[in-house]
Amino acid sequence: MFADGISNAAVFEALARSLSLSLAVALISGVAGCLVAWLVTRSDIGGSRALAGLFSMPYAIPAYLLGMAWIVLGNPAVGAIKELFPEGGIYGFHGMVLVESTVAFAFPYLELKAGFERMDPSLEEAARMSGARPWRVFRDVSFPLLWPPLVNGMCLSFLYTLSSFGVPAMLGMPVRQFVLTTLIYSQFKLGGMAGIGAGFKLSLLLLAMAMLVLALSNRLVGLQRRRGGAIMGSRVSRPGLVRLGGARLPVTAAAWIAFAAAVALPWGALAFSALAPVAGSYSPSDWTLRNMEYVLNLPEFREALVNSLALSISVASLVVGAGFLLAFAAVRRGSRAAAWLIEAVGVPFSTPGTVIAILLIFAATWTAAALGRLGLSFDSPLVWLALAYGLKYCAVSARMLAAAYRQVHPSLEEAAVVSGATTFILLRTIWLPLLSRTVLAAWFLTALPMFTELTMSVLLTGPGGATMGTVLFQLQEYADQPSAAALAWILLSAALAGAFFMRGRKAEEILEGR
Amino acid sequence: MRKPTTLLLLVIAAGILSLPSCSGKKKIWIYTSIYKEVIETMREPLQKAMPPDVEVMWFQSGSENIASKVNAELAAGAARADLILTSDPFWYHELKDQGRLLPYKSDAAKDIPAIYVDPDGAYAGVRLPVMVIGYNSRYFTNDSELPKSWKDLADPRFKRLISMPNPLESGSSFTAVALLQKQYGWDYFEKLRANDVIAAGGNSSVVTRMETRERPVGILLLENVLKAWDKGSPVRPIYPSDGTIPVLSPIAILRDSRNPELARKAYDWFFTDEAQRAIVRGSMYSLVETAPSPDHALPYAELKKTMMPWSAEILERMFAERGAIKSKFSETVLR
Amino acid sequence: MSDLRLKGVSKRFGEKEVLAPMDMAVTDGAFVSLLGPSGCGKTTLLRLIAGLETPSSGEIVLGDATLYGTGVNIPPEKRRFGMVFQSYAVWPHMSVFENVEYPLRVRGMERGERTERVMKTLALVHMEELADRYPHQLSGGQQQRAALARGLVMEPPVLLLDEPLSNLDARLRAEMRREIRDLHRSLGITILYVTHDQREAFEMATRIVILNEGRIEQEGGPGEIRGNPAPGFVSEFLSHV
Fold it and tell me: Which chain C residues touch A130 with a CB distance below 8 Å?
């Protein structure tokens, strides 16, 4: 029914797997995100400031390379730490859940962290003073008030996993476990001309699932709407931290071990691969810098770096800025159109990159035809890349900011409005500082995947359009694993360094350029 | 974000993005899966062979990506590409069937053996990648342990030692599967499945799996093995006794080409000595008999003796069965 | 019930010493106001007593129970103080009744007894009729009363207030000052009240502790201080009405 060469049973099996994978990841990310956000903002866990920034780092690793790093670690034949895994190593459903969770975790984690930081700590302190122990405080006060960001975060995790291709391809296909995205991919790649149609049909199936989930999450958040918002403290108040006491050492150790597992292990695996003269020879005596040199000296490297930086920074800023305004219009000014738009952009986010790229190729072809009739030609791949990135990732900031706006009590704005502030001043002096942490988190979650994006870039690129993703693809397909690992390691190290650098600064400071 | 810095970045970005190439020159678009390094050696000579008011534009990506892109462009109305050079012969057959190709019986291609040329001139083989067996020479200490033929791979002693590219993703792998099932039937693939063959990714992942010893034996393109060997990798090729598999890689002109004359000129160039030498330097076989063979590779004359048969009829027949081949492979190996 | 005593209590945040080591005694039933300009450490001191922050040194004792000392650091939920915050901190997802009821629910009191206690406390702050309203339906002053009721419902030994009136308008403030003072007289509860507004301090407190830059500048009854302000900071501070 859907495509040549694939039985309906196979399609539904893949669909079921996509759904269960996404659900598992969303649940794990939600619980873990909640826990870590609380630990990092409300307890005296050791090294909380460092942990706060570092925990979202797996998000910085492009999916293909994360999969590769984990295969180096966990493949059942020769994986470095294969003993730690059950039969089958890192391949298969449990491996996919694990690896996707380390990335998708970033959504609920950053939303909740921003939520906690934004929430008036005296709300929780009042509960403590009323005699409630920390778990009760969380259950009775924090959780009900942080429900919208949590649901939104989990929703984003779900949709991200649903449309992801890299990890299922690397960890599922070798053991014959397919998800809908890997099926769609093979239709476009080798389905001939009929494959385009088949790919679209399968994508619609995926989209239907995404729409269901989006509707469900709106329902869940809507139930909370009448409860008003959590007011931000008017003073810069440090929350009274919960003292973990005897549990402090084991909890701190556990957190750092979790971080090591999620970030340091893949980073190490990439380093070992990057320094290896040939894939598979990991002994330090053979280490060489040749791969790093090769990557840095590639003629496209500079062009790709500039393009990727320019594209990700500018498109992310534009998209986050637009999301900030759109969410304001939807939540604070009741604009139906804005609210609809915020819902609508959930669609491209849930759509596999290949599909978006194909649609944009259509658009590019029509544009070229139209321009051709006017005697003009326009060959800049960067425009289409920018469009692709923007479309794919704009949902993240729009939804995160909408959830954040909903969380804040209108009274904060009313005082300013009454004193005659224009909308522009209102946004700049009241809302931007209030939501600064969410804005920054949204920017991070938007710019980073744009920087390393691969699937769309490879189809939409052209002369002058090299990006980090196309260079990665080049290295992956035509060079060797150590070179691809070298690039990935360089990218990840840069991201980690950036996070480390920013750890002391407050979100407000960064946004105001101090 | 600092306000002035953001503004500056946005301006720079807008500038970069709107660099249109309204240069007024005529353009010839070549979509190809040939390696970038090889293209670099071809860029200048081809440009010189074209008239001065023409600009040659290259789009390079994987074979299958090119197919996706062109199919999408065609579905949207008209492809931008003038020339296509990839390595999935079945796609060219489909395009020809749909009337998307501009037939051209080029003089320059007269030396290409007839089995690699479309009888109606829709496309012609411009290079010949071949599928072989690869192995990690550090894993196999004794030559007698090595597989000598495709048939050998079905032997249980190779359980959990073999990987191949996914034929649903890789055109070269699909060609291999099509020819092997014609030779040995689906029984063969059931035995491969029993040997827990990994069929995932492209040719490069097969190389990686050989190097890391996850699967020290591989079914893959010779050029991947040779390139890795060049870099110091321990992987080596085996030319199966029951025949290496030819993966016809044609060149064709699209009917929608806006400059068919120029397209024909460029088409011809790819059969010149210069172009063929560049191809050979890229570790691929040339179809011109007088051309040298790639370094480290079995000379073409030797290779021809045992290569699996190929012809337009074989292509025709397998093209008709391609849906069935894909589903059968899915059921047999991918379940 | 018992006296609250601080000995050698200090607090540093990193390099900065926010409170120099100090001694303080609060007799049972007193209304002590911690008065001083912004940043003088008065709120920090209150939070140390509440248990929301941990002192860098010293001892905090209530009666014969050590709240903080060597090897002892009782968490805030076990200290049984009532607290009213500057931002009211009334939970938006609970009604007034549920807000005030919460400390009793946490302590496992029976429902019937809870209801009785809550209504009684609400009556003290004149909020009985608004028991079923939600915070967003209340004015600032009403929210403040709800917070007050929540702090009092447990009948705590000490009630801590952190600038509770600064977000209210002048008329409301005057009204609340009277009410709080009346509550103190009728309940006899020990009150620790942080403010930067000397009017509040002098009108309500039986004892005033004036702080500046982490040190106690002067302490005593309102009459004492007015009659004999310490030279330097205190005179300066008090001369601005």
Answer: 77, 102-103, 106, 150, 154
**Token code pair at residue A241:** 């931290």
Cα pseudo-dihedral C142, C241, C31, C60, rounded to 10: 100
C-alpha dihedral sign at A391, A393, A394, A399: positive
Q: At a CB cut-off of 8 Å and minimum separation 6, what does A227 contact?
A: A144, A145, C92, C93, C134
Whole-angstrom distance, CA of residue B300 vs CA of residue B197: 30
Q: Do the chains contact at C93 and A144, CB–CB below 8 Å? A: yes
pLDDT tens track for B184-238:
999 999 999 999 999 988 899 999 999 989 999 999 999 999 989 988 899 999 9
Number of neighbouring beta carbons within 10 Å of residue C199: 12
Cα angle for residues A444, A448, A451 (degrees, 5° grid): 145
Calpha distance A240→A42 (Å, rounded): 8
Could you report the per-residue pLDDT of C127-152, keeping only the tens digit for each? 999 999 998 889 888 999 999 999 99
Which subunits have 3 or more CB–CB pairs within 8 Å of chain C? Answer: A
Does pLDDT of A269 surpass 60?
yes
Considering only CB atoms, A230 lies closest to which of C82, C92, C103, namely C92
**Residue C164 is encoded by which pair of tokens?**
């509770």
Tell me how far apart the 2 most distant CA atoms of chain B are, in Å: 70
Q: Extract the tokens encoding A160.
A: 């991200």
Work out the pLDDT band at A509, boundaries 50, 70, 90: low
Closest approach of chain A CAs to the CA of C24, in angstroms? 22
Considering only CB atoms, B330 lies closest to which of A10, A382, A474, namely A10
Reduced to 3 states (helix: H, G, I; strand: E, B; else coil), residue A503 is coil
Which pair of tokens denotes residue B90? 């079945």
Give the closest of A72, A310, A443 to B16, CB-based.
A310
What DSSP designation does B327 have?
Answer: H
Residues 347-406 of A with CB under 8 A from B: 354, 358, 361-366, 368-369, 376-380, 382-383, 386
Shortest alpha-carbon distance between residue A261 and chain B (Å): 22
Q: How many CB atoms lie within 10 A of CB A108?
A: 30
Average pLDDT over residues B20-48: 84
* Strands B54-60 vs B26-32: parallel, antiparallel or unpaired: parallel
Interchain pair A365, B79: CB under 8 A: yes
* Alpha carbon distances (Å) from A442 to A42, A304, A349, A356, C236: 22, 24, 14, 22, 49
**Average pLDDT score over residue span B71-84:** 90
Strand blocks (E) in chain C: 4-13, 16-26, 31-35, 57-62, 65-69, 72-73, 82-84, 158-162, 190-195, 207-212, 215-220
Compute the distance between CA of residue B211 and CA of residue A280 in angstroms, rounded to an integer.
5
Lowest mean pLDDT, pick from A318-322, A333-337, A427-431, B12-16:
B12-16
For residue A8, how many other CB atoms are within 10 A of its CB? 10
Chain A hits for C147, Cβ within 8 Å: 126
User: Distance between alpha carbon A348 and the CA centroid of its chain, in Å?
Assistant: 14
CB pairs under 8 A between A and B: 212
Q: How far is CA A379 from CA A204, A307, C75, in A?
A: 30, 15, 67
Q: Which residues of chain A lie closer than 8 angstroms to C158, CB-CB?
A: none
Of B69, B324, B331, the CB nearest to A361: B69
A192 contacts B71? CB cut-off 8 A: yes
CA–CA gap between residue B168 and residue A191 (Å, rounded): 8
* Residue among A290, A296, A267 at smallest CA distance from A277: A290
Q: Which two tokens stand for residue C21?
A: 């080591």
* Measured distance CA(A254)–CA(C224) in Å, rounded: 57
